[in-house]
Amino acid sequence: MTLSQLQKAERFNALHAPGEPLIVTNVWDAITAKIVSQAPGVKALATASHSISNARGLQDGEGLSVDEAIDAARIIAGAVDLPVSADFEKGYAADAAGVTRNVRRLIEESGIVGINIEDSVGAPKAPQFDIATAASRVAAARAGAGASGIPLVINARVDTLAGGGDWDEAVARANAYLGAGADVIFFLGLTDEDKVSRALEQVKGRISVIGAPGLVPLTRLAELGISRVSFGPGTLGLTLAALQRTATDLTALGEYPADLGFKFAL
């Protein structure tokens, strides 16, 4: 059954359930979207801007133009019938009006049903927009979604801790973004159980986090009440590491790896 964009958006929102987190394995093109979508249990997909940019030989941090970012999202969303969320960086705009315009374009031209939007001026450790400005950009994204008629799921990123900032400021930002229309807070820097628990207690809404080796295990994140886990460019790194290991073994006249016979098709 093919779902409408509205149905996908509603389903995507419902999948963010505290204690039963949505696991989104980040993808960066049509074939990775297709392959991940066919994995048992996968219910939705999310793009990673870092991976999309690097696959094109570009740096992350809005190295793509807004047209290129929208086209990348369109290709990925068009390859599958699952809900897809796009990492839309800072909205590819200098002001709130531009964010509104670009988010509406993204929804209408690509078919996506969710976005990540950042609160840093540049990379994650760069200075952040002041709280009022960052919140106004979340509100602008919500306005763009409203104009499109699609209940976009906004995953608003808080970069404060990742940049070495203050805990209370991070929480204040999270709650301000929820008040401005975010559905979920993408809280970077929750590196241990204590921080996860504190965030869940103090943030007045659902929380998503990054998963990686050395961080809180997925089963424990579920027990604590996290609503979503993603992996950013980690999945591209995993793929490239496997490719490099294979190239090393083959060059050394090693055995053919079983995965060299993996069957795939669009």
From TrEMBL:
It holds the Pfam family PEP_mutase. The keyword Repeat does not apply. One of its GO terms (molecular function) is lyase activity. Keywords: Lyase. Transmembrane segments: none annotated. Gene3D superfamilies: Phosphoenolpyruvate-binding domains. This is 2-methylisocitrate lyase-like PEP mutase family enzyme. InterPro entries: ICL/PEPM (IPR039556), Pyrv/PenolPyrv_kinase-like_dom (IPR015813), Pyrv_kinase-like_dom_sf (IPR040442).
